[in-house]
């Protein structure tokens, strides 16, 4: 095995495209003296550029990906005890907004190879209380949206797309985030583009757009006649500093995504001969954009599965995340123990028993996915040399662990 090669990391400059373009726009902000988004020029410009990039009528910049999901859920405006169907494999930032809006998250199972929620799994979760559906395009691999959207339309239920990991991913010819009622994006440090923390929402619906814009401003409609605080809401505003960085990053997004895809295709080709590992499938008409590179480890061929392979990779200084989030979201204490507001357990006190039944037999795809997946680091700074090194490290690790098991 060759000596270790340091891989770029998106937690530092080595894996990011931050540079003079961001500095120039930040200088404009500092020179102007206006750092608030309600008075500045950068945030309106960013929102216009986002809307143009994604081909939608409205974009609203805000403070985080969690804020994006919260704004979307708040725009749907559920009644206490209403249900919002979501996925069992997602970040808590896409779940707690549901609770804060007094709704009950109902978890749907996922495909055991993509980790994405499916129409059949969602259908099994729907009830007369269902107010919305949240789908997550895991690792930038689009969900099978056609059947999901058809199911939602037939029931009159809005679909919220969580695209935090899916910048410029395509479902057929359409960009994800533009097909549902609202698309939610994160600008956190490790995403395709970053402002450290930040996010935005996209929609073509005028009413939802206004509701979300007002929500992030404490329900105060800036610029309208006779403004007043219209409903319970928070300050989820972004800043002019973040918007300046986001504008520079947005210009670099297409090239960064192109590089991620090319590097992933190179690695996929090199892994074709390794029987013990299988890259996550992408539907023929879809475009995945590889926030990370997930693959599955066949424990029958490689004893110890993803944990054993991750340990072998650590020996040659290649980081990885076996089992991704380790456990389904509903196994986290906040949900499993219903730790919400004081000792009230609200809104779970309104929940149907079926809505909070987290028995293993209801989630075979989820448990299968997490037991086999190994997540490799990925970013737009990966060169062919980095990819080749990673492929070599994987081949070596598989061979060593297979040999040891004989």
This entry's quaternary arrangement is single chain
Largest sheet properties: 7 strands, mixed
Fraction of residues in β-strands: 5-15%
| Number of extended strands | 13
Contiguous helical run count? 12
Average pLDDT, all residues: 96
Please provide a brief summary of the model.
The chain is α/β, with parallel strands linked by helices.
Write a concise keyword list for the protein shown above:
single chain; 406 residues; alpha/beta; Aspartate Aminotransferase, domain 2; seven-stranded mixed β-sheet; four-stranded antiparallel β-sheet; 12 helices; 13 strands; globular
Can you lay out the helices and strands and say which pair or pack?
Blueprint: H1 20-32, H2 42-54, E1 58-62, H3 65-76, E2 83-87, H4 96-100, E3 104-108, H5 119-123, E4 130-136, H6 145-155, E5 159-162, E6 170-171, E7 174-175, E8 182-186, E9 199-203, H7 206-215, H8 240-270, E10 277-279, E11 293-297, H9 305-314, E12 321-322, H10 333-336, H11 364-372, E13 373-376, H12 384-405
Parallel strand pairs: 2-3, 2-4, 4-5, 5-8
Antiparallel strand pairs: 1-9, 6-7, 8-9, 10-11, 11-13, 12-13
Helix pairs in contact: 1-8, 2-8, 3-7, 8-12, 9-12
How would you describe the overall organization of this protein?
It is a single chain. With 406 residues, the chain is an alpha/beta fold. The protein has a domain at 13-250: Aspartate Aminotransferase, domain 2 (3-Layer(aba) Sandwich). The chain is 36% helix and 13% strand. It is built from twelve helices and 13 strands. Helix 6 links the parallel strand 4 and strand 5. The longest helix is centred in the middle third of the chain and has 31 residues, at 240-270.
